[in-house]
Amino acid sequence: MLHHHSTMTLTLILSLLVLLSTTCHVLASNRQTYIVHMAKSEMPAKFTEHHDWYHSSLQSVSDSAKILYSYNTVVHGFSTRLTEEEAEALADQYGVLSVNPEVRYELHTTRTPEFLHLDKTDGMETQSGTGTDVVVGVLDTGVWPERKSYDDSGFGPVPANWKGTCQTGKDFNSSSCNRKLIGAQFFSKGYEASMGPIDETKESRSPRDNDGHGTHTSSTAAGNPVSDASLLGYASGTARGMAAKARVAVYKVCWAGGCFSSDILAGMEAAVSDGCHVMSLSLGGGSADYYRDSVAIGAFSAMEKGVLVSCSAGNAGPSPSTLSNVAPWITTVGAGTLDRDFPAYVVLGNGKNYSGVSLYSGKPLSNSPLPLIYAGNATNSSSGSLCMPNTLIPEKVAGKIVLCDRGINARVQKGYVVNAAGGAGMVLSNTAANGEELVADAHLIPATGVGQKAGDAIKSYLSSDPSPTATIQFGGTQVNIRPSPVAAAFSSRGPNTITPEILKPDLIAPGVNILAAWTGAVGPTGLSVDQRRVEFNIISGTSMSCPHVSGLAALIKSIHPDWSPAAVRSALMTTAYSSYSNGDGILDTATGAAATPFDIGAGHVDPPSAVDPGLVYDLTSEDYLDFLCALNYTSYQIAAVAKRSNYTCDSTKSYSVSNLNYPSFSVAFATANGDGTGSATTTVKHVRTATNVGASGVYKATASAKVDGGAVSIAVEPSELSFSKSGEKKSYTVSFTAPSLPSGSTGFGQLVWSDGKHIVASPIALTWT
Q1: Angle between the 294-304 and 635-642 helix axes, to the nearest 10 degrees?
Q2: 37 is known as an active-site residue
Q3: In the Cβ-directed half-sphere of 707, how many Cα atoms lie within 13 Å?
Q4: What mean pLDDT is predicted for residues 473-478?
């Protein structure tokens, strides 16, 4: 009996333990990471340290929650794991401004210096003598420090005011940093709290880059010149970053499962505290109101400390309103092409040739034609045309060139699928989703990517010829391609959904087929089956265009160290070009027509002009606070963005978004009546203040815009600005008068100030909503 009772007791205890374990697991699984913004000035007197106050506030709603990060620089507050109920309870605590759920961000994934005429700025950078004092902080997947792009030969001591560290970890010791790569840290608490411990068999729990993306972006921004650089022989030449004399600091905030906002904020906090002058983030997580956007919040504080924050616009184009990182204190960068191509031709059995692109470098196909088959006819799968893993029938593709449709799985993986099924080569055809945009890939088998039109023509040949054949011929590297640049179809587009009156993107920079340093951990395709290892890789995305602008901002900062982030961005924007030398507008790959400011912002960067812009549109933190007041933000929302406790907008002051001193114009008009009629005209006024950063001179204004279905009148008052000295400021008003047009109508134009030497241009976008 005793034994039986003991057994029952033991069974009961075990059952309770299982129940408790299950309950804890459910509670843990119901938790998510939140970023808690605190009003620093409201800390009760009984606390001496803010961290203690944060901990006490947290303990009041949860016995088990732990602080992941405590933030003190770019935000005031902390991040932690909470249930939804605990988060709601914490939001009601004294001194808590907001409790925002964590957001998972994604990465937005050489001839560039010559194409940008950077050789013309080399002398200026040398004369400034401060080029090596500028530090570019790159928040990404880390760095492969052994690459020559980070060689510190010729660099003097690390700047005395640098406060950063070289964090050690797996495969990364203190000697991995040097006088070029002066800082390296990693941030994983948020990632591991959400995704579990890092799998160290697949990625290093250290600043080391196992992905390649971070090495590529940081070397693009500020890598040293490296001669004889190429990817498997393609794009051979000297690869160099935009600000080759700047120092680099890396902050690893992105991991195999993404980039989490609690880690990103911690990385931004470190970059500002360490002493970075420019911060580069090639990542995004959609768009949200600024007081809920961690990158926007971190960037506001960085801006106040004089740090320019450059972010990628996103790769969700060509659909409209697809931008990330649209806060006006962030420089938002879209992508364009270079004047370089990597042609690979499909030669059909009927004698017709179609041009595609490829970075394949292995054994070529023979010149003798091989049988050609459409993947959709060599599968039992409904999605077989996409060449997904295990969808091709080997008997039907063996020894043949296979035509695969682009989409769903990685472009390079499709070639591996073809090869695994016994295929000899691949033609990768764009569908309507990608149109004529071609992105070169280092394929594992003989392969080329073609546009939708060529793909459709090849499919037509396949369906009409009983014995279709083809071969692929590789053309190597070609330069001086015209027209160039053209806007990349993948580059995310405006209008700005958060604040339509702020035109985004700000500008575009090279982002297609960019050569830069690469990790030693994976091959150029990033696939596990790719055993090749390369020192440089060619990839595309606004992830690549962003560090171009980050590096150029560092270059300008080295020449003009007293310029604010807004002044630097203004210089890059107002000197950008939106048309080719023949006067035609920069083309959009997606449409084949001229791009609009919603596609390219102010246009394509032009570094030599940006160094000497003539005039700039400057902005201070107070201007941005007025902007937030114009958005009718509450005191709590302003405090979350700008860390201003108890900030109230002046009820006697008239705030207007259109008065933000931005280097572009986005003008919103009221729409016509429901039937599309209405003859009344509307006038919208924007006020701007130009600061002279050059010699004395007289600037005269010209402005025009075109609208389908109506005429727009643009009046600039005064239309002439006279400056007698550098630093002088002059204001002007622009009146846009237009008829009432149907909702969705748009118009585009440009306002230009010129003194005969400088061209200070601002794009104009008109919308009817």
Answers
A1: 70
A2: no
A3: 27
A4: 93
How far is Cα 489 from Cα 435, in angstroms, rounded to an integer? 8
Contact 344, 474 (CB under 8 A): yes
Using DSSP, how many helices (H) and how many strands (E) does the chain show? 18, 37
Q: What is the maximum span of the chain, computed from C-alpha positions, in angstroms?
A: 106
Q: What is the pLDDT of residues 372-409, one digit of tens each?
A: 999 999 998 988 999 999 999 999 999 999 999 998 88
Global pTM?
Answer: 0.91
What gap in Å lies between CA 279 and CA 222, rounded to an integer?
12
Sign of CA dihedral 647, 648, 653, 655: positive
Query: Greater confidence, 72 or 14?
Result: 72
Residue 485: cis peptide before it, omega within 30 degrees of 0:
yes
User: How far is it, in rounded angstroms, from Cα 349 to Cα 171?
Assistant: 52
pLDDT band of residue 122 (cuts 50, 70, 90) is low
DSSP state of 741: B
The CA-CA-CA angle for residues 73, 75, 77, to 5°, reads 110
Distance CA 178, CA 200 (A): 25
| Residue in 37, 55, 213, 277 annotated catalytic | 213
Residues 6 or more apart whose CB falls under 8 angstroms from that of 89 comprise 61
- Alpha-carbon distance 427 to 425, whole Å? 7
Q: Is the Cβ–Cβ distance between 446 and 362 less than 8 Å?
A: yes
Catalytic residue (one of 57, 62, 76, 140): 140
Strand partners, 334: 508
The confidence score (pLDDT) of residue 114 equals 57
456 counts as catalytic: no
The sheet carrying 247-252 orders its strands as: 181-186, 247-252, 135-140, 278-281, 308-312, 331-336, 507-510
Q: Which residues are within 8 A (CB) of 289 and not within 5 positions of it... i.e. 6 or more apart?
A: 498, 637
Options 294, 310, 543, 545, the catalytic residue: 543
